[in-house]
Amino acid sequence: MSALEPVGEGFVLADVDPKSTPGVADRADAEAQLEANHDELGSLQERLWAESKFGGTRSVLLVLQAMDTAGKGGIIRHVVGGVDPQGVTIHAFKAPTEEEKRHDFLWRVRRELPPPGIIGVFDRSHYEDVLIHRVRGFSTPEQIEERYGIITDFERELVASGTRVIKVMLHISKDEQKARLTERLERPDKHWKYNPGDVDERMLWPAYQQAYQIALTRTSTPQAPWFVVPADRKWYARWAVQSLLLDALRELNPQWPTADYDVEAEKKRLAAT
Amino acid sequence: MSALEPVGEGFVLADVDPKSTPGVADRADAEAQLEANHDELGSLQERLWAESKFGGTRSVLLVLQAMDTAGKGGIIRHVVGGVDPQGVTIHAFKAPTEEEKRHDFLWRVRRELPPPGIIGVFDRSHYEDVLIHRVRGFSTPEQIEERYGIITDFERELVASGTRVIKVMLHISKDEQKARLTERLERPDKHWKYNPGDVDERMLWPAYQQAYQIALTRTSTPQAPWFVVPADRKWYARWAVQSLLLDALRELNPQWPTADYDVEAEKKRLAAT
After folding, report:
1. Residue B84 and residue A256: Cα distance in Å, rounded?
2. Is Isomerase included in the keywords of this UniProt record (chains A, B) (predicted)?
């Protein structure tokens, strides 16, 4: 059971300690639980998939947002990697292409939504359109203001159509980011993970924190809540996101579907071959 | 190192024993190797991905073909599942949609090819157009005849553009299929995996074996060879496909790329933030 509360009334991002580890005793405990829970998570997804083969329309969408190096990739590898890869779709949203720019900002997002039975993961998302767009001025304040409402409407529609939406901000400290970027520069086998643009973004740290504060509080709704996951300790963030996924799937509680064919007749038909 | 020889001159599918286990001592050995090799496979894929971020164009395509219940899904789950899900794309080719039917048979295949750095998996493929199409008469003999050449041309082009192509037929016996279908009917938690159409296809067993014999021998080329993997023992098939993937990736031998930015200058820039 996740120990994290969804973002609600009076939430202040700056009050969340990125080093904190609510809900788990220590690293050994978190890692043991992570490992032990892979089977249940995989089994719940398999049932959700089975259900979808017989008309079920439910799916799960995990939205991951974070500053660079916060560990989105590690979450996908170590948490989502515990599920059958056939039961997962992952989409990393990059800077929009020329074609994507010709459409409204949700166009490319709608194309990547998980089909029934599937856990979809967004590595960045439509929230970039109110985060980097606010910080870098890629859109006008009026456009950004309008988008909070467009997003909550979109997510309400998504939830109504059967998709469980879990939105996670991995929250790291500025010091921890510096340590992780430094490591990428010091290890030749990590050089490929470093991009000079990462430092440019880092210089805008306070503006990003403010943009997150606004986006989180404006778009955390009962049907599609935001969770801020302290992420300075990778083992904690992985445990916490797995807990959120497990909570969601346990609540969906998918069941093996009943055959829509005559089982006894099929047994006879098969026996005769 | 895989013990399997590619399909070549004089190959006879009927001579391959689906119960055989060439190259491995026993089940315990195969399962231990499967587990132990996950890290190397994952690490090789990560290097391939890193390489692609700095201009590399290489990728891997694993084509899986088989009679129903032969274990394609299990291969994806237990072999491909050992790789970071961000490094894998999986596409299951179903009966073509109306839109797909309006295009040539390779149109939908080209859209699902793995991008650079990625291991792509095809669960069924363009080979359906010379397998079920031959058995069911969905295309004329002339069309099917023409396709073998179209396919080998297509795969030559694919290999030339940097994609390593591994084609696997999982080979099960008719008796083993019966046992697996029977289990699906006997266990309510497996009913969803059963489709009455499976028995219809089963009744055409000899025609399918003949279609495979022809397709395998006509399209196994030095650049894109076919491997027939005995699949009555799931633990063997998983070990064998992992070995084929490992062989391919070891041969590609991807390396961590050299930074295309000034590492020392970036260290200073980062230190100042």
Report:
1. 28
2. no
Among A185, A194, A268, pick the best mutation site for testing chain B contact (most B Cβ within 10 A): A185
Helix B27-53 to helix B234-252 angle, to the nearest 10 degrees?
A: 30
Mean pLDDT to the nearest integer, A193-215: 97
Read off φ and ψ for residue A132, nearest 5 degrees.
-60, -30
Calpha distance B158→B162 (Å, rounded): 7
Query: Closest to A85 (Cβ–Cβ): which among B88, B186, B273?
Result: B88
Check if A101 contacts B (Cβ < 8 Å): no
Residue A194 zone, left/alpha/beta (φ > 0; ψ -120 to 50; rest): beta
Q: Please tell me which residue of chain B has the smallest CA distance to A85.
A: B81
C-alpha torsion sign, points B230, B235, B241, B243: negative
pLDDT digits over B157-174, tens only?
Answer: 999 999 999 999 999 999
Provide the shortest C-alpha distance from residue A207 to chain B (in Å): 15
Contacts of B273 in chain A (CB under 8 A): 178, 199, 202-203
Give the rounded distance of the alpha carbon of B41 from its chain centre.
Answer: 15
B261 with A194: Cβ contact below 8 A: yes
Nearest partner of A89 among A108, A116, A72, A114, judged by Cα: A114
To probe the interface with A, which of B86, B203, B205 has the most A CB atoms within 10 Å? B86
> E strands, B129-255, where?
163-171, 226-230
Query: Is residue B55 less than 8 Å (CB to CB) from chain A?
Result: no
Residues A227-240: pLDDT tens digits? 999 999 999 999 99
SS3 B262: coil
Contact assessment for residue B4 and residue B229, using Cβ atoms and an 8 Å cutoff: yes
Phi-psi region of A214 (alpha: psi -120 to 50; beta: other; left: phi over 0): alpha
Residue in chain A lying closest to B55 (CA):
A192
B3 — pLDDT class (breaks 50, 70, 90)? confident
pLDDT (tens digit per residue) in B191-206? 999 999 999 999 999 9
Cα angle B60-B90-B76, degrees, rounded to a multiple of 5? 90
Domain assignments of chain B as residue spans, ordered by start: 13-271
Q: Between B84, B90, B191, which is nearest A77 by CB? A: B84
pLDDT at residue B1 in the model? 58
pLDDT at A132: 97
Confidence category of residue A1, pLDDT binned at 50, 70, 90: low
Contact A80 B81 (CB under 8 A): no
Gap from A145 CA to chain B (nearest CA, Å): 30
A51-72 confidence digits (pLDDT tens):
999 999 999 999 999 999 999 9
What ipTM is given for this predicted complex?
0.94
Share of chain B above pLDDT 90, in %: 99
**Which residues does chain A have within 8 Å of residue B203's beta carbon, measured at their own beta carbons?**
273
Q: Which residue of B has its CA nearest to A195?
A: B261
Does CATH place domain A13-271 in 3.40.50.2300?
no
